[in-house]
Amino acid sequence: MRILEFFVIGIVFGVTEDFIAIKVAAGATSTLDTIKVAFWVALPFAIFSELVVDHPGFWKRIFRFRDDN
After folding, report:
1. Which end of the chain is more exposed for a tag (fewer CB within 10 A), N or C?
2. 35: which residues sit within 8 A by CB, 6+ positions away?
3. What is the pTM assigned to this prediction?
4. Domain coordinates of the chain in residue numbers?
5. How far apart are CA 61 and CA 54, in angstroms?
6. What distance in Å separates the CA atoms of residue 40 and residue 13, rounded to the nearest whole number?
């Protein structure tokens, strides 16, 4: 299930978002090369956000709460 979530959210939405940004900011034409660039830009961010940040223990390691009672 995590891999499917990674693929759908991380890759598809990331590529779509980056493709739109490339089109708007650079005025590039819609070609396969533009989609490839969007994919390679989105991939590391998708991996980091979906597999690292969304890991159940990630926030527990970042914010180690102590019980000072």
Report:
1. C
2. 15, 19
3. 0.64
4. 2-62
5. 12
6. 13
